[in-house]
Amino acid sequence: MIQDLVVYLLFMGYAIGFMLGLATLFTWVERKQSAVMADRIGANRCYLRLPFTNVRFVAWGLFHGIADGAKMLLKENFTPKTYDRLCYNLAPWLAAVPVLLVFAVVPFGGTLAPGRLLPQLHPFFGERSYAMQVAHMDAGILVVLSFSGIGILGTMLAGWSSNNKFSLLGAARAASQMISYEVAMGLALISLVATYGTLDLGAMVRWQSGTLFGVLPAWGIFTQPLALLLFLTAAIAENKRVPFDLPECESELVSGYFTEYTAMKMGLFMLSEFIEIVVVSALLVTMFLGGYNLPFLTDGGFVLPTGSVWHLSHPAVVLLQVATFLVKVFLAGCFMIQIRWSLPRFRYDQLMAFGWKFLMPLAAVNLVATAGVRWWLT
Questions:
Q1: N or C end of the chain: smaller count of CB under 10 Å?
Q2: Dihedral class, residue 53 (left if φ above 0, else alpha if ψ from -120 to 50, else beta)
Q3: Which of 219, 225, 231 minimizes the C-alpha distance to 145?
């Protein structure tokens, strides 16, 4: 139906704007946050000036992300003298597009009824309602794992096709690291599936809308705290950020697997890293922090443990849920950036040993314990 097409096109536009907008903002957060930790001012030189005046809008350096994007678009595109043209050009897209596709199964709000949102839309939409999610899939967790695995191909192709020994070494490191930490991540997610009893991310959020002991929100951070630590650690390693940045560490490999990339191709690799921060933060919020829910918030308003009800209109509930999800994702992303500037880099043997000898056994123990508790309770 044309109504469904309109709604889902709007959802896709919002999802793309959400990821690209927050990813650009996180480039500024990384600069400013590192500056605060080092007692510096940080990025503050880029500005917009009103024509024919000396009035400058600095906005705390927020325009630096726009300037970086313009610089990448305008720079000349150099390529290696000998390289595989197809794989070289395909690699940045294989690194960036799967990250964008993962967000399709993430619910960024509750139920939207356009006819109740604006009375003028009721003749067109009627009583139709939509889950605020680009693609509603029962096997959402499997989609997340499948698409995240495709990103490995992008890094491998980038390093191999560049015909550069540093790029090839970075690609080998990236492939072994990402595959290793995907095992621990998968086991952590299976523990969540056993807890929630579903693979659907939307159903997981609805499960977390309840309470524990009548007061505590039934969020994954309280029901599966160890799985949260395992998932966060593995996700940072998947994103190749400090202390797991061995595939592209500047002090050893120049820039690792994308050493031979310039202009917007290199920019696409860098942007995909920040988009992945957004997506990982969104998954973290969805599976462990209640998603778009606030404690005691329902589609009709707030229902407090005392039995009192604070009724809210449908537009207010929708805006509150979308804003809640946005704020949670932003704070989770800031926390991940904080980790980068707080920890030293592993040696490569330490990185692999940590993944296989500590993280994976811990994830397996957590899965067995979760299965045992589920069996006992049922």
A1: C
A2: beta
A3: 231
* pLDDT tens track, the chain, 378 positions: 788 888 899 999 999 999 988 998 898 888 888 888 888 887 777 888 888 888 888 777 788 878 887 888 888 888 888 888 888 888 888 888 888 889 999 999 888 888 888 888 888 888 888 889 998 888 889 888 888 888 888 888 888 888 888 888 888 888 888 888 888 999 999 999 999 989 999 999 999 987 787 778 889 999 999 999 999 999 988 888 778 877 776 666 667 788 888 888 888 888 888 899 999 999 999 999 998 988 888 777 787 777 777 888 888 888 999 999 999 999 999 998 888 878 887 888 888 899 899 999 999 999 999 999 888 987
| 67: CB partners within 8 A, 6+ apart | 46
Cis omega (within 30 of 0) on the bond before 80?
no
The tokens 């202390």 sit on which residue? 243
Residue 338 has a CB neighbour count (10 Å cut-off) of: 16
Cα 147-226-280 angle, rounded to 5 deg: 30
Query: Distance between CA atoms of 334 and 64, rounded to whole angstroms?
Result: 18
Distance in angstroms (rounded) separating the CA atoms of residues 29 and 372: 42
Instruction: Give the C-alpha separation, 278 to 297, whole Å.
Output: 24
